[in-house]
Structures are given as structure tokens and as C-alpha cells.
Amino acid sequence: MKRFFKTILVLAFLFIGLDFAYQKAAPEIEKTFGTRNPLPYLTAKVQQFISPEKIQNDNNAKGHTFESNTATVYLDLSNPTLKQAAIDGINIWNNTGAFNFKMTNDKNNAKIIIKAMNDGQTNAAGLTDTQYNSLTGHLIKATVNLNSYYLLNPSYGYNHGRIVNTVEHELGHAIGLVHKDGISVMYPQGSFYTIQPSDVEDVKKLYQEQ
Hints:
single chain, Collagenase (Catalytic Domain), 6-stranded mixed β-sheet, 19% strand
């Protein structure tokens, strides 16, 4: 019984000591974390460390980049029109010298995969999903989806040039570019313009600053 009361007494003093220390430290905790209860913040950081990979789509892109201005690309396309447009879009980007896309036959190790989708529920002719490491901010993988529902339907007016522009636009998202108003390949309706000198400068700046 004496041991029990002694344990209770020790725990009580320990609790009082911890409470006193917390009250002293509370202003600094609030200054650092913006709250006197940093547990949710610290929990989120631990979860982020355990599982650092995050997925986003191009509508929420925040300019994440690959570690360097080079990435391997796998073409998961059977339609010859889309496949040729993808090849042309890659070559146009490569000719700018701002980024180097290297085509590969190894799908599992490709940084970027270009594939087809057929979805009339979205109004987008292309969508890009990117996966990045939330600790480093660097992109890990990107998937470019070319929407055949629009691109291959003559009633929507997509000729080869507009399909190539769409590829260029989505590859821009895949390497970290965001939407941009004005004459730019990253114009939100991404099939009207090819890559412009300002787009090249945007990529160079993005990868010089990383």
C-alpha cells in the first residue's frame, strides 16, 4: 500500500512539473507552431515522413520539378494518331533545349507515361497526374492522359497540330509548369498554342532555381 501511495505521489509531482514546464514553454510553442497544441502539426509531419509520396493533378499543380531537366518517357499508346502526336510533342520540347525527354521501352522505370483515356464526363482534352516527394518537393512520376473522346472526334476540330499542342501542354504540366494566360503553350485551353520563347524561359528558370 505504501508503494502505491508513493507511486501516486511521484506521478503527481511529475504531472505538476510537466504542467509547469508546459506553461513556461507555451508562448514559444505558440510562436513556433501558431498554436499551443502542436500535436496535429507534429503528427502530420510524422505521417508525411512515413509516407512522403503525394499525388496531384494538373489543376492543382504547384510547380514541383524533377531533380534535373531530364526525364524518361514511355508511350503507352496504341492509336497511331496519338502516338505520332506524342512523339512530335516530345521532339518539339527537346528542340527547345530547356528539357530533355528520353523515350524508353521500360514502362516500370519511366518517369513519365503518356497514355490514352476516353472520357466525355470531363471537358479536358488532356489531364496530367503528378506524384512527388513532399519532403524534397521533387517529382517522382507523371502520367499524361490524352483524351481520345475529344482528340479523335472530328466534330471537335482537333487536327494533328492541335493534338500536338495538347501533348506539349500536358508535358509542360508533367515537368512542373502551371497554367498561364496569354500566348503560351500553358494557356488553360491547351491546344491553341505551341511552345513559346516565354515557356522555354519558364522551364529554364524553374530548373535553375531548384
